[in-house]
Amino acid sequence: MDNDNRTPEFTFLPPIAPEPEAPAAPVRPTAASQKRGGLGRTTAAVLATALLAGGVGGAVGAAATASHQTEATASSSTSTGTISQASLDNSIESVSAKVLPSVVSIAFTGKAGSGTGSGIVIDRAGIILTNNHVVAEAADGGSLRVSFQDGRTASATILGRDPGADVAVIKVDGVDNLVTATLGSSASLKVGQQVVAIGSPLGLSGTVTSGIVSALNRPVVSGEQGSSATSVLNAIQTDAAVNPGNSGGALVDMTGRVVGINSAIASLGAAQGTQGGSIGLGFAIPIDQAKRIADELQSKGTATRAVLGVASEDAEGGAKLTQVTDGGAAAAAGLQVGDVVTSVGVARITGTESLLATVRSAAPGSTVEIGYQRDGQPASSKVTLGSADVSA
Fold this sequence. Notes:
The protein folds into two domains: about 1-70 and about 85-300, Thrombin, subunit H; about 305-390, Pdz3 Domain (Roll), CATH 2.30.42.10. It contains six helices and 26 strands. The chain has helices at about 85-90, 90-100, 130-135, 285-300, 330, 350-360, and strands at about 10-15, 30-35, 45-50, 55, 60, 105-110, 115-125, 125-130, 145, 155-160, 165-170, 180-185, 195-200, 205-220, 230-240, 250, 255-270, 280-285, 305, 310-315, 320-325, 340-345, 345-350, 365-375, 375-385, 385-390. It is mainly beta. The longest helix has 14 residues, at about 285-300.
């Protein structure tokens, strides 16, 4: 038996530009250039590949024998062979029918190329929630076009972006009777809970896949190699198949409520400049965090993030504080240089990226309990987190 000791590599899911559909012929998305992914190992967080499909960098090829690749299961039957209403209401089929109309495809063009991602309609006025890396290329003189499940299309403008959280909000005009998604809560998610992912992988709009919540509070660093546009996520990990083009699409629970925004995947040993596909390691932004940021972006065009007021380095068992800012949140709570932070709330801290991702996922001004080791002795303090403005 061969042993595969390759380290998973994690990047944004890059964009894809499908070729025009030909009647009665297989849909074959064009080879999609992907954004250069930040590849490599990190001890405290995974480095992820963004879920964009399209044109910047190396090539990604795909072929499908149908216009949609949909994974669904039949609802459960009773011992008499009839299907109960309860099982039908909680089936993947029912969830898909409920959520699909509110998930869109987003095509972008910019100076460096073009591609596609996904988005979620969150307001009938045409407000759409997506990933920053889906629309960033269009932010400097580019363009966005949104395709809805009913076949309508419309141009879109960016209302605001938060690159660090990989969240963006865009708006379409002139389209009425939009179906909005129902936003749930990520705080109540459990490992092993069934979820459904909906988006436009490889340009195949309306694609549905299913899986479970594989892990919670997973630190993920994703971005483009050599770029400052790096996102740090305290992510929901799922084994639902997500691929380039799923970025910005919905991760939903079995009541059809959005619990996460698909953002990144891990891939095994993908060569630099190429994009791997799903290996069952997908990562989504928790909806509680995404909604808070989206509300800020809608209302004022900018967002804020929580700050602890420290610098740290990886240490055995956590993140060792190397600097504590005078007057900052950590200093006010009595934390000191040399303390090793081991937990923030319910999240275990495994290193610097883990600490950063967990703090950023919290709301500015919220109070959290931080566990730490000082001189080998466990301690804890309640900390009211500070706030910093985010610039796109």
